[in-house]
Amino acid sequence: MSISVFFLALFVILYPSFSAFIAPITKHHVHNTPFYSLKVQLQTPLQPTYLLLHVGANFTAVDCRRNYTSITSRPVPCNSSLCHSLQNNHDNNTTCDTATTSGGASGGCVISHSPHNSFALVDSLALPATDGRNPGQLSTFTEFVFTCSDESSRLLKGHAKHVVNGLTGLGFSNYSLPAQVSNNSSVFALCLSGSPSAPGVAFFDLPKPYYFLPGIDVSDHLYYTPIFSHPAVTYTKKPNTKRYENAYYIGVKAININGRPIIINQTLLKVDENGYGGTRISTINPYTVLEQSIYISLIEAFRKESKTMMLRPFKPVKPFRLCYEADGLSETHLGPNVPQIDLVLQNDVSWRVLGKNSMVRIVDDDLDVWCLAVVDGGVGATSAMVIGGHQLEDNLLQFDLGTKTLGFSSTLLQHKTMCANFNFSTNNAIKPF
Ligand SMILES: *[C@@H]1O[C@H](CO)[C@@H](O)[C@H](O)[C@H]1NC(C)=O
Ligand SMILES: *[C@@H]1O[C@H](CO)[C@@H](O)[C@H](O)[C@H]1NC(C)=O
Ligand SMILES: *[C@@H]1O[C@H](CO)[C@@H](O)[C@H](O)[C@H]1NC(C)=O
Ligand SMILES: *[C@@H]1O[C@H](CO)[C@@H](O)[C@H](O)[C@H]1NC(C)=O
Ligand SMILES: *[C@@H]1O[C@H](CO)[C@@H](O)[C@H](O)[C@H]1NC(C)=O
Ligand SMILES: *[C@@H]1O[C@H](CO)[C@@H](O)[C@H](O)[C@H]1NC(C)=O
Ligand SMILES: *[C@@H]1O[C@H](CO)[C@@H](O)[C@H](O)[C@H]1NC(C)=O
Ligand SMILES: *[C@@H]1O[C@H](CO)[C@@H](O)[C@H](O)[C@H]1NC(C)=O
Ligand SMILES: *[C@@H]1O[C@H](CO)[C@@H](O)[C@H](O)[C@H]1NC(C)=O
Ligand SMILES: *[C@@H]1O[C@H](CO)[C@@H](O)[C@H](O)[C@H]1NC(C)=O
């Protein structure tokens, strides 16, 4: 062994480096609707970039027609193997565009045609390394692949143009953000904070530990259930227009309220080959959406159980149907004291949903109520259940795409911590590979 290799080895032993990365997740409100964004550094020079958190998207999509001036961005050539792989096609007949748009996007490999052509781009993305306790030094990925499109504006109906610059794809694809920054595992974890002023956190390529103040490793408190990806029909407002997302599904077997199962048509709980039915996780839905028959069954059972707890419903506030005056509810650190909801999952584990996650507080002029935070998906809803952001807050979710398991913590509040308790003070001794 040469002397320099020896010193290099010594250096590596004394200063461990980490191949795991983190990013803060911020909660925003636009017109009273919450959504969540992941903060990364993108372009050269690096710019802070807020990307709508989307677990159902294959690619990161950045609105690079607005203010995108990176000196390192470059299009993906049409007939390149990268383009073939991105378009997921095997006959090498790639779709090309020679049009030039302003900013960083200049034609090349076309990823999607609707509603507009979106092009593939390559640029630098940077994230801090982590040991699961603190962020460390930044690591730059110079070959980060994403698409140039205004998909995030479409999803947010244009409301949040000034807040986010795009969306981040965390779906089951080789070009998702986790896949592109991971070296050693197919694991990422999300912890959404309920507070707009204190961010939650995403961990990439880190199976454990996940430390939250005061020194609690949440990876010790996870339950596991199978997870799988499948195309989901997500949009059917206009007749004959279907959209698909590459969604993550879990197997809900029953829903219990105060320990008693509600009546559910079991057929709805399975996702069929066309992408209807089943229970998927969505970080772009603020509240859980239930197919109408399940919704009615849940509301009625919840109303009945709350009656036995001496709770009297109050005038409902749209879009919710079951609300209670805040005055009439007792509250703990776990939220208002209301009937407990359990999602019974494959592997016979329960995802417990307590007041902080099942109820949302609405304060207006002369109104102060807690409402059951689920919405009616209507008849013919495309999924039986879509578990939305409010129900995910202060829960840690670990997506292991290698073993196809979801680790979930239920509310961290029961362990006296929360997603905003990650210690974001930088520790410069944490070096990336
Ligand atoms: C464009 O980006 C620069 C650098 O981040 C920023 O100072 C400027 O305000 C941005 N302009 C617009 C219109 O967003
Ligand atoms: C892409 O490759 C195909 C088949 O090799 C060829 O016919 C076509 O001209 C190429 N297109 C471009 C834009 O180079
Ligand atoms: C497609 O292109 C790749 C690389 O560009 C090449 O290796 C492969 O043989 C091509 N396949 C066909 C069917 O032309
Ligand atoms: C390539 O795709 C286009 C449109 O999808 C189609 O019109 C054309 O026939 C295809 N070419 C080959 C050689 O398969
Ligand atoms: C997403 O990627 C997966 C895996 O590559 C693929 O099967 C699926 O068709 C893609 N979905 C969309 C909507 O592009
Ligand atoms: C990722 O790429 C590998 C190798 O090309 C392939 O076997 C695998 O199916 C791809 N995964 C997805 C999710 O597309
Ligand atoms: C994987 O790790 C090697 C060093 O072990 C490093 O050079 C490479 O950049 C890493 N790749 C990613 C995607 O993290
Ligand atoms: C890669 O993962 C394995 C186990 O999955 C672990 O033992 C090993 O230390 C990891 N290597 C790095 C460089 O993180
Ligand atoms: C259960 O749902 C399926 C799928 O929507 C439907 O075809 C069936 O009629 C339903 N069964 C009952 C008893 O409502
Ligand atoms: C947060 O992390 C920093 C850097 O490691 C450390 O100095 C500080 O004590 C930590 N804060 C708490 C409250 O533990």
UniProtKB/TrEMBL annotation:
<dbReference type="InterPro" id="IPR021109">
    <property type="entry name" value="Peptidase_aspartic_dom_sf"/>
</dbReference>
<dbReference type="GO" id="GO:0004190">
    <property type="term" value="F:aspartic-type endopeptidase activity"/>
</dbReference>
<dbReference type="InterPro" id="IPR032861">
    <property type="entry name" value="TAXi_N"/>
</dbReference>
<dbReference type="Pfam" id="PF14541">
    <property type="entry name" value="TAXi_C"/>
</dbReference>
<protein>
    <recommendedName>
        <fullName>Peptidase A1 domain-containing protein</fullName>
    </recommendedName>
</protein>
<dbReference type="GO" id="GO:0006508">
    <property type="term" value="P:proteolysis"/>
</dbReference>
<dbReference type="Pfam" id="PF14543">
    <property type="entry name" value="TAXi_N"/>
</dbReference>
<dbReference type="GO" id="GO:0005576">
    <property type="term" value="C:extracellular region"/>
</dbReference>
<dbReference type="InterPro" id="IPR033121">
    <property type="entry name" value="PEPTIDASE_A1"/>
</dbReference>
<keyword id="KW-0732">Signal</keyword>
<dbReference type="InterPro" id="IPR001461">
    <property type="entry name" value="Aspartic_peptidase_A1"/>
</dbReference>
<feature type="domain" description="Peptidase A1">
    <location>
        <begin position="36"/>
        <end position="409"/>
    </location>
</feature>
<keyword id="KW-0964">Secreted</keyword>
<feature type="signal peptide">
    <location>
        <begin position="1"/>
        <end position="19"/>
    </location>
</feature>
<comment type="similarity">
    <text>Belongs to the peptidase A1 family.</text>
</comment>
<dbReference type="InterPro" id="IPR032799">
    <property type="entry name" value="TAXi_C"/>
</dbReference>
